[in-house]
Amino acid sequence: MIAVIGSNMVDLISYVDRMPLPGETLEAPAFSLGCGGKGANQAVAAAKLGAEVMMLTKVGDDIFGDNTIKNLQAYHIHTDFVEKVAGASSGVAPIFVDKSSQNSILIIKGANEYLLPADIEKAADSLKKCSLIILQLEVSLETVYAAIDFGKKYHVPVLLNPAPATENLDIEKVAACEFFVPNESELMALTQMPVSTTDEVRLAADVLLKKGLKNVIVTLGKRGVLWLTGDKEEFIAAHKVAAIDTTGAGDAFIGCFAATYTETGDILASLKRANAFSALSVQKKGTQISYPSADELASFLEKA
Q1: How many helical (H) and strand (E) elements, i.e. helices and strands, does the chain have?
Q2: Helix or strand or coil: residue 126?
Q3: Which terminus of the chain has fewer Cβ atoms in its 10 Å neighbourhood, N or C?
């Protein structure tokens, strides 16, 4: 089983021709509302590929909270440790997608702020049985550090997606993670180094490796993926597709990687499959609803 300890959000997606200037009102061509949040997205992506997934998260006691729980259950994700927080709003994410399919996102954490280290202890018996723990940074850093410590203590490998980026992340505290998966902007924020070229990405990732991280996997959007260890490097070129909406593509990648790795133990094969899965996801609008099925992924890989 995979455990996702992290966030859920309600995605409020506006498709815009351009962002309005200060004081300006513009008409936008389309809007959609869906379930999202980095943690929930990653859980859904893994579950859609047949992985057994449990989630630790907090929702508000508003209309969005019940809907989030029902959505997770619809994907057969275990929700025993999804709790409502009285008096709190659910997390929401206003997302703006422009004509080039690039997105800008605001995060209001809401009930996600109430996911605490004590919640990890409540779920300890179930977490000990898991083959992988997935984390992001849309919950408190104390909870993230506690989950990493738990994984280290009970020999459960941990994957950390350091998103959204924060300079407050203590690399020494996360060095016990088996996998560290930033995108370019997150890598730049963590290292304060340029990442415009593959060589620059390589140098920035090397800084993290020297601080004790084992596997640094940098997602490079339309360029592909770069995986580095202390003595190995693999670059996987992105599939050339017509992107419509890149929202949630990084989460799609992580969910697929986790599902494949826990089944096979093969990092490179898992990265290649995740690369294809995320390429498929950007060809549809939305986040979770854009994620392909296992059959769709298999068909895409046969033709690639």
Answers
A1: 11, 13
A2: helix
A3: C
- Asked if residue 258 is part of any domain, the answer here is yes
Give residue-wise pLDDT tens across range 165-222: 888 999 999 999 999 999 999 999 999 999 999 999 999 999 999 999 999 999 998 8
User: How far from 90 is each of 69, 87, 131, 202, 267, CA to CA, in Å?
Assistant: 11, 10, 29, 38, 35
Cα–Cα distance, 12 to 105 (Å, whole number) = 10
Which residue type, as a one-letter code, is found at position 256?
Answer: C
Closest CA to 37 of 254, 276, 262: 254
Cis peptide before 164 (omega within 30 of 0): yes
Residue of 277, 282, 283 lying closest to 296 (CA atoms): 277
Active site residue 251: yes
The single residue of 17, 206, 251, 295 carrying the catalytic annotation is: 251
In which residue are the tokens 């995605």 written?
Answer: 11
Stated as kind and residue range, the H or E segment containing 58 is strand 53-60
Q: Is residue 266 part of a domain?
A: yes
**Residue numbers of the domain that contains 247:** 2-7+38-57+115-303
| CA atoms of 74 and 22, how far apart (whole Å) | 41
What pLDDT, on the 0 to 100 scale, is given for residue 242?
84
Residue 165: both structure tokens together: 């980026």
Helix, strand, coil proportions of the chain in percent (round to 5)? 40, 25, 35
Tens-digit pLDDT profile for residues 90-140: 999 898 988 888 888 888 999 999 999 999 999 999 999 999 999 999 999
Q: How far apart are CA 296 and CA 10, in angstroms?
A: 26
Residue count of the chain: 304
Residues 6+ apart with CB under 8 A from 181: 159, 160, 161, 162, 217, 218, 219, 253, 254, 257
Residue 42 lies in a domain: yes
Our count of domains for the chain comes to 1
Task: Give CA–CA dist 272/119, Å, rounded.
Answer: 34
CA distance 56 to 74: 16
166 domain residue, yes or no: yes
